[in-house]
TrEMBL record:
Segment forming the signal sequence: 1-24
Protein name from the UniProt record: ABC transporter substrate-binding protein
SUPFAM superfamilies recorded: Periplasmic binding protein-like II
Pfam families membership: DUF3502 (PF12010)
Entry keyword annotation includes ATP-binding: no
Keywords: Signal
Highest classification ranks of the organism: Bacteria, Bacillati, Bacillota, Bacilli, Bacillales
DUF3502 domain span: 417-484
InterPro entries named in the record: Bact_solute-bd_prot1, DUF3502
Length: 486
């Protein structure tokens, strides 16, 4: 077992669905060199794999996992212990699990929850390149740019879950309210225009929350590359600067929204947003744009939505790191864990079982590749697990939704920093402090919880005292060195 390194600090690119993906459709067997001799493996008792995911335990989970394990055991002679952690608790619980050295095998990680880069830095995950080399069909699912984006110091520590690899910021609105007041949301192009819509909703529907929360994604502006969610990059002169300088007007707007009651009263601490949204109490929310997204939202929340983009589509590192599966450095079965990752990314039956549950119990099959979920039944989003291009379609999703998604993935602009990986080694103590400060101030700024100028000044003072300028110089140095090699 590889021991976790001890350090002082805290620690989606076009998708290629070519002929190699025949395995995902059941037309190509798994790589023999990777899976080994099935009859020999079957003679041994199955080994259990523990997998943590960021999701509340759904209804019928035990029955679904029992059926899934029958399939997994027949394929790779393993069983899965899928452990659900409530999204609001996932960050803290995973930190405790990793700090304690608990033995487990797989975990959901990302740029936005259970931070992938921080966890790699602290030695929480093993490098996967040697194991990944045994699965060329798995590698071929994603474009080279995506694989490069997940590398840290030229090593791969997580397998991106194959979904839309494009980040396109946007907002969804409850369609019944849009229709009721004839709100022309499709023509919104600025924050001021969005503010006007919220003002009308607040006036007409006093018990309805206009917006779930603030986000700089509401900005209706060109994409700004960033590093570590702390530094923005001016690609005209390749200079590094404090990322908050890019969003001062947005922060001021969010302060205004907060004071006018456009957010939930507990916007900064709200953990269970799903119940609030399902209850129809929220008019709009920031949401990533994608083909068929409106149908997914209706299935999740029970009502129709209208979506608008607030930015152009882009494939950046944050998108590549948005949903990953990593193998723990405490795992005693990394080869078997990789077999499971390969299986769930290439076996249609397995991912649909773990995503939608059991036919007749959790959903009704409408056609060979389309299902309708039953209310209150089992469901786990496929993007938490693996290759969503192998999952069933939902009512309302276009028949060609995966083809549309593939096209967007292949044509979207690539972030110029997609393969830039910041090495924290020289400033890891400073980065630990800066990350903690950012975690403290981001919800205040995004949700307007206090005066904007005062908050920015306080944040800046704390950042400088924690070594911000030193880290900025290091980011600039590494950026300059990286550019020389491009």
């Amino acid at each position: 077992m590889q021991k976790m390194k001890k350090k002082t600090g805290a620690g989606l690119a076009g998708v290629l669905l070519a002929s190699a993906m025949l395995s995902a459709c059941g037309g190509q067997p798994a790589a023999p060199s990777a899976e080994g001799n099935g009859s020999e493996a079957a003679k041994q008792p199955p080994q259990k794999l523990i997998w943590y995911i960021r999701y509340s335990e759904p209804a019928n989970a035990k029955a679904v996992l029992e059926k899934a394990n029958a399939l997994i055991q027949s394929k790779i002679n393993a069983t899965l212990d899928l452990r659900y952690i409530n999204p609001g608790d996932y960050e803290n619980k995973m930190q405790l699990i990793m700090s304690s050295g608990e033995e487990y095998d797989l975990a959901f990680t990302s740029a936005w929850a259970n931070n992938y880069l921080n966890n790699v830095d602290r030695g929480a995950y093993i490098p996967l390149d040697d194991l990944l080399a045994k699965y060329p069909d798995l590698q071929s699912i994603l474009r080279k740019e995506v694989w490069n984006a997940v590398k840290v110091k030229d090593k791969t520590y997580g397998i991106p879950n194959n979904q839309i690899m494009v980040s396109q910021d946007g907002v969804w609105f409850k369609k019944d309210i849009v229709d009721k007041y004839d709100l022309n949301v499709a023509k919104i192009k600025t924050l001021d225009e969005l503010s006007g819509v919220y003002a009308k909703v607040k006036e007409k529907e006093s018990n309805l929350i206009p917006a779930r929360m603030g986000s700089v994604a509401f900005g209706f502006k060109d994409y700004v590359p960033n590093v570590e969610n702390l530094f923005s990059i001016d690609t005209n002169n390749w200079k590094v600067y404090d990322k908050t300088q890019s969003y001062v007007e947005e922060y001021r707007t969010f302060r205004d929204w907060y004071q006018k009651g456009y957010f939930p009263q507990d916007v900064g601490t709200l953990k269970d947003e799903t119940s609030l949204i399902k209850a129809g109490k929220v008019f709009s929310r920031y949401g990533r744009q994608k083909p068929g997204g409106d149908a997914e939202l209706k299935a999740a929340y029970g009502f129709d939505v209208v979506q608008i983009p607030t930015a152009a589509p882009i494939i950046g590192r944050s998108a590549a790191l948005s949903t990953l599966t990593a193998i723990s450095s405490t795992s005693k079965k990394p080869e078997l864990a990789m077999k499971l990752i390969h299986l769930i990314n290439t076996d249609k039956e397995l991912i649909n079982l773990l995503s939608f549950g059991i036919d007749g119990q959790d959903y009704t099959k409408l056609s060979a590749n389309r299902v309708e979920k039953k209310p209150g039944a089992y469901e786990v989003p496929g993007w938490l697990l693996g290759n969503v291009f192998n999952t069933y379609l939902l009512p309302g999703q276009p028949d060609d939704v995966w083809e549309q998604t593939k096209k967007i993935n292949e044509t979207a602009k690539i972030d110029p920093l997609i393969s830039f990986s910041f090495d924290r080694t020289n400033v890891e103590n400073e980065m630990a402090r800066l990350t903690a400060i950012e975690k403290e101030f981001q919800p205040i700024l995004d949700n307007g919880l206090d005066d904007t100028e005062k908050t920015l000044k306080l944040r800046s003072d704390k950042m400088k005292a924690a070594g911000f300028d030193k880290v900025l110089v290091e980011v600039q140095r590494q950026l300059d060195e990286w550019r020389k090699k491009q």
